[in-house]
From TrEMBL, chain A:
GO CC aspect terms: plasma membrane
Keyword flag Acyltransferase: no
TM regions (residue ranges): 12-37, 69-88, 100-124, 136-159, 192-214, 234-255
InterPro entries reported for this sequence: MetI-like, MetI-like_sf
Keywords: Cell inner membrane, Cell membrane, Membrane, Transmembrane, Transmembrane helix, Transport
Entry-linked CDD domains: TM_PBP2
Chief localisation class: membrane
Protein's name in the database: ABC transporter permease subunit
Species per Swiss-Prot/TrEMBL record: Streptomyces buecherae
Membrane topology: Multi-pass membrane protein
Intracellular or extracellular location(s): Cell inner membrane; Cell membrane
GO biological process: transmembrane transport
Length: 265, 415
């Protein structure tokens, strides 16, 4: 702790809560409160009910939840595979080529995601690459958006990885694929794990690109939240939002619990 | 299978044929300059030199981690210059051990065996055998992080030996260990080599004690070049360059002029000195030429003798069993290690030093090292400064040594 005096420490806590509560916690708490309300005209919501949750885990909303989970899972796996592969390839490149590849992978992050959505829509609306109207265009767009993060975190981990491990493995007679499979990837596991969680969370919350291209039978949960509130069903929207939040957190928790033996050195 | 059976690989040496390694886009920085060196089968060759001398680059060229710009590397009769590391059949141990942190000790040792597709039934036995060789069999189920530095190093050695390589590369294997552990591991390595007499060992170090203790031959490297190569005794007693003289053991290096009158007569300042065995090869320095006289501090005594130098005491260090005297002789500082003196001589006191003609070696001038203090001085021996006050601050004492030593003269550790 940097602050040593008792009063100093109390001040630090007070400042922390003064900033943290209104900025981070309160809006989320308001959503949770709204999801149980029937009216909200005064300072506090009234008429506690669980009816909205009934709607949020049935029918269209349940479908949207599975859609979101499947989309995020597939996109994350794709992004992790492509991002790791690219990061491994980039680490073997010269410095200039690597910088070019870095920039290329950062492009979807730098460009507004609406633009990415539109670009994917336009690019895949003509045969032979006709994906428009299928779920694959959503998964593809999410994959493009989150690969950047997978690439970046694996790339950073690779740069930190001591080449001595690889060299020791090679000197023991391990072919490159064995070095990758038995040494490099296990040592990268903590980073891969973190990257997977990040990709999943980003994909679960993605709205703007999805709005551009989702087909009627593949509506992810954020779109459902948006349409519900757009129609004025604020409390139902809140309940759906809480479901979105909860399911994302649950999956993240599960991912972070995966044992990573390589993380202790 | 006996616990200490010899490796299955045929005895194979290492041969460098004019191996040059260069870094940078146009190869502008040369890390290894046309190295010619042969390590005989079963031999321990130490590559000794300061950091940046190219010794590690040479080892990495054998391992296959750097590609020579020119020249060829042979392991046994095989030209391995273009082979990837995993096909070279070497064992390697590096300074930081590089044990796989996610694998247990036994899995670490088994890694090489699995990679080389040793039959599954044979692996467990060979893992145990390798771990027993280094006394680590009881730790097979531990993770590397649960072991001390010395234990990790043993496991790293076991891992390298488990694949029964013909060639073992050791890259500063002891430099991460503390001094006491280091001498224990030195003895252990010597024992391992006695048990595995067919394994050729290339041992990279900047520590002359390790090289002198372990090596059958020492290759002295400096500035990307091989400076000298020979048995430890040969290099210590008859160094051929000033660099070798100062890096292998400790040396007084005095600039002299070769005299014309009698063979072996040289002139240092105003003093006439004699050196025997100068013209053994028949082409020593010509009369009138400049040369460097090398004599080891422990061969210099107090009082007059065959060759006498007169000067004044500049510094005295007590080293337990010996006193090291720093004596200013005609502007040069001469070191003498003498048996512990009853009375510490006073600073500024005039003294006479002597050495025998057959203990001195005449070297060609201008073969001095570039670095003023060799890397070996990084571990100074416990010393005390001149005053009879016991144990002054060690930091100060060490600083005093570094300053007191004449440029190019070796560090604190004498042979």
């Amino acid at each position: 702790m940097l602050v040593h005096s008792r009063t100093g420490r109390w001040t630090a806590w007070i400042v922390f809560f003064a900033l943290f509560l209104p900025l981070f916690a309160l809006p989320l708490l308001v959503i949770v409160a709204a999801s149980f309300a029937t009216h909200w005209s005064g300072a506090f919501p009234s008429g506690p009910t669980t009816e909205h949750y009934g709607a949020a885990v049935r029918g269209e909303s349940l479908e949207a939840l599975t859609t979101s989970l499947v989309t995020a899972l597939t996109a994350s796996v794709l992004a992790l595979a492509v991002g790791t592969w690219a990061a491994l390839a980039a680490s073997a490149l010269g410095r200039r080529a690597k910088r070019l590849l870095d920039a290329l992978f950062m492009l979807p992050v730098a460009v507004p995601s609406v633009v990415v959505g539109l670009a994917v829509l336009v690019a895949f609306s003509q045969p032979p690459m006709l994906l428009n109207g299928t779920r694959w265009i959503v998964i593809l767009a999410h994959g493009v958006l989150v690969t950047a993060f997978a690439y970046q975190s694996v790339s950073a981990a690779l740069a930190r990885l001591d080449p001595a491990y690889e060299q020791a493995a090679a000197s023991l007679g391990a072919r490159p694929w064995l070095v990758l499979w038995r040494v490099k990837l296990p040592l990268l596991l903590p980073s891969l794990n973190a990257a997977a969680g990040l990709c999943f969370a980003l994909s679960m919350g993605e709205l703007s690109a999805t709005m551009m291209l989702y087909p009627p039978d593949w509506m992810p949960l954020p779109v459902r939240v948006f349409t519900a509130t757009d129609r004025g069903a604020l409390f139902t929207g809140s309940a759906v939002a809480v479901v979105l939040m909860g399911s994302t957190l649950l999956v993240l928790l599960a991912v972070s619990r995966i044992r990573t033996r390589a993380s202790y050195r | 299978m006996s616990a200490h059976s010899a490796p299955a690989a045929p005895a194979s040496g290492i041969r460098f044929e004019r191996v040059t390694v260069a870094y940078g886009k146009r190869g502008e920085s040369v890390a290894l300059d046309a190295l010619d060196l042969t390590v005989e089968p079963g031999e321990v060759m130490a590559l000794l030199g300061p950091s940046g001398s190219g010794k590690t680059t040479a080892l990495r060229a054998v391992a296959g981690f750097v590609r020579p710009a020119s020249g060829r590397v042979f392991i046994g009769d095989r030209d391995v210059t273009a082979l990837p590391p995993h096909r070279r059949g070497i064992g390697m141990v590096v300074q930081q051990y590089a044990l796989f942190p996610h694998l247990r000790v036994a899995q670490n040792v088994a890694f090489g065996l699995k990679a080389q597709r040793v039959p599954r039934g044979e692996i467990a036995g060979r893992v145990t055998e390798a771990l027993e060789m280094v006394g680590m069999a009881d730790y097979a189920r531990r993770y590397p992080r649960e072991l001390s530095g010395g234990q990790q190093q043993r496991v790293a050695i076991a891992r390298a030996l488990a694949i029964r390589p013909g060639v073992l590369l050791l890259d500063e294997p002891l430099s991460a260990l503390d001094a006491q552990l280091r001498s224990g591991m030195l003895a252990e390595l010597a024992r391992l080599h006695r048990e595995l007499p067919d394994v050729s060992i290339l041992y990279v170090t900047h520590d002359q004690v390790e090289a002198l203790t372990l090596a059958d031959r020492i290759a002295v490297m400096d500035r990307a070049r091989l400076q000298d190569c020979g048995t430890p005794q040969d290099l210590y007693r008859r160094p051929r360059t000033e660099f070798t003289a100062s890096f292998v053991g400790n040396a007084n290096l005095l600039p002299v002029t070769v005299g014309g009158a009698t063979p072996g007569s040289v002139r240092f300042a105003d003093t006439e000195l004699t050196v025997t065995g100068v013209d053994e090869s028949g082409h020593g320095p010509a009369p009138g030429a400049d040369a460097t006289l090398c004599v080891r501090p422990h061969l210099v005594g107090l009082g007059e003798g065959e060759n006498t130098l007169r000067g004044t005491i500049a510094e005295v260090q007590w080293r337990g069993s010996t006193h090291r005297l720093f004596v200013d002789v005609a502007g040069h500082r001469v070191k003498a290690d003498v048996r512990e003196l009853r009375e510490t001589p006073a600073l500024g006191q005039p003294v006479a030093l002597h050495f025998a003609a057959h203990d001195a070696v005449l070297l060609p001038a201008g073969t001095a090292p570039q670095a003023t203090v060799p890397a070996a001085t990084q571990t100074p021996a416990p010393v005390a400064t001149s005053a009879p006050v016991p144990a002054p601050a060690p930091g100060l004492a060490a600083a005093g040594v570094a300053k007191g030593v004449a440029p190019g003269a070796g560090g604190a550790t004498d042979g």
